[in-house]
């Protein structure tokens, strides 16, 4: 198709997913990719809203690139028909490749801007947040992420299951690839801006939906900024997320872990001082647990049944640990989020993570005692140490959310 025609489609790049250091023609500052699959009902509205916002902020200095994977509902044709009305709009129709992440990268490969971005085409990512993301980049960030997990962030009416799956995926990432997933509070975000030079000349190799993991894992990202946003409910069409995306996510994490030297970086960034304080608090919890267990279950005191006493003692110890961690180990973070609602939310997360840690503790104890070391106390010590690292690391990233974001 002759690319000089007014609404001709963009050429579709092939080969490795590498972004050139400088654009073929640097005619604009900002290139925003809108990946689409069956968004016919949303595409005109998102283009109209983005144009209105960006014409106000950076008139003539941006481009919108719709990258559509040959949607059966004709999204790419509708987008193409809008090019006349929206001169900043370009459209790429992919027929040989499919997938959200690769669509974004193909769009970045043909982009003209030195600042690259991605936003969903279904209006679930509120366009107005773009302005704060642009401000963060102007202030020096290499990567500006719209996050559901910082102040001002949230998900509209997600089911408990979807929240649990999303958080579970994040915890899995914190375990498999801590130095990447732990750098931001919402590593699953599909809404962010990144400087071209931070991700240029590296072969990106994403699989599935989580393009941000690839950018964090393979890019040269120094300064990160986060902006809170509320993930909106879809009005038209439906999410394309299936179990396949969850499996691809795990595959992506493992591949990133194996192919990048992020193992070393984890130990460099590990906050040893905080971990020591967390360990001392945990020790105080052991004394509280033992004391309450004695008061409740010893024949010379109340003589209650052991399991019931242990559950009460364990919960009181968790409460004790939370108070000390909130007031000492993570005081600097806690004081930034010190409303009662935030404190209760933190306590709830801490509780869930510590109870999961208790399950891990029991599993490791049985594993070590039955297959490795036939001494229950040594096995228990190993189990407590592993559960403490789990409790510390996951609480650091989810409850008190110490990310590398400035
Ligand atoms: N080109 C292309 N190819 N676009 C796709 C594909 C694909 O295979 N699959 C989905 N898209 C487009 C959709 O049209 C939509 O614009 C956007 O990518 C997100 O797809 P959804 O299916 O709506 O994903 P979601 O809403 O469940 O999750 C989104 O938001 C999360 C939070 O930011 C995704 O962006 C997730 O990656 C993200 O974690
Ligand atoms: Mn969506």
TrEMBL record:
Keyword annotations of the record: Glycosyltransferase, Magnesium, Manganese, Membrane, Metal-binding, Transferase, Transmembrane, Transmembrane helix
Keyword Heme: no
Cofactor(s) the record lists: Mg(2+); Mn(2+); Ca(2+)
GO biological process, one term: polysaccharide biosynthetic process
Topological category with respect to the lipid bilayer: Multi-pass membrane protein
Chief site of localization: membrane
Domain of life from the UniProt record: Bacteria
Domain (GtrA/DPMS transmembrane): residue spans on this chain: 277-399
EC code: 2.4.1.83
Family membership: Belongs to the glycosyltransferase 2 family.
Protein's name according to its UniProt entry: Dolichol-phosphate mannosyltransferase
Lineage: Bacteria, Bacillati, Cyanobacteriota, Cyanophyceae, Nostocales
